[in-house]
Amino acid sequence: MAGRVVREEVIAPEPAEALANLLDTDVPVAVLPPMWHWVYLLERRPSADLGPDGHPTSGVPAPPGPGLKRMFAGGRVTTTHPLRIGEPATRVSWVSRTSEKVGRSGPLTFLTLRTEISQGGQVAIVEESDLVYRAAGATSPPGGAPVAEPAAGPRLRLAVDEAFLFRFSALTYNAHRIHYDLGWARAEGYAGLVVHGPLQALMMAEFAGRYGAGLVGRTFGYRLVAPMVGTQTLTVLPGPEGAVAGARVVDTAGRLTAQSDVSSGNVTGNPSHHA
């Protein structure tokens, strides 16, 4: 299939064990929790394919131009049924949309990567990931707005340091140097190592699973609103009205860095473009 990447592998128990131990949670036995597919069916490119920043310079998705910085902006994931451990699954990915706009950091190219994961002949997960590419000289967006932590209600905390970021990068086969190379992160305009956007989304999904109705049969949408930088205690809070399904992530200083929503609809293809 032209312009598409197809991968097939067995959903082995070891990556799930590794992620569970990283998050200090129970190791799944029969099925993967929603969003845990991010440690499976990965594109494991040769080192020769990587650019100076650690991202592949070609393939799906490929940078729209030389020297552009890539940011993970958000996405939507519909989980029809969880992936079963011990059985093969197939992932098909392709670029479904691109667009141009101007944001606070200058010209931006938005790219949406569409992914479908099937198991046993049925589509189990449909996902759209929104990526943003900006000029190398542009500065990073400022920190998010402060959020008052509610006095009561559920919350989920995660201590994130350099070793944690390194381990999550390794689990997701993410070589982007802003997550483990402090000098490179500063060269890209960040004050410290950058906490992965997918990690923040994963923790909001965990929050929905532990304190809400879960994500199977629903669509989980997430948006990264500001970088989370440096050693952190990442905190997941309920939404502004106390809704578990509309979780928010704040950093140690109480600044909003990510937010999510859960709906009964399917991924249809309207990205939340932002910078």
Automatic annotation (TrEMBL):
<dbReference type="GO" id="GO:0019171">
    <property type="term" value="F:(3R)-hydroxyacyl-[acyl-carrier-protein] dehydratase activity"/>
</dbReference>
<dbReference type="InterPro" id="IPR052741">
    <property type="entry name" value="Mitochondrial_HTD2"/>
</dbReference>
<dbReference type="InterPro" id="IPR029069">
    <property type="entry name" value="HotDog_dom_sf"/>
</dbReference>
<protein>
    <recommendedName>
        <fullName>Mesaconyl-C(4)-CoA hydratase</fullName>
    </recommendedName>
</protein>
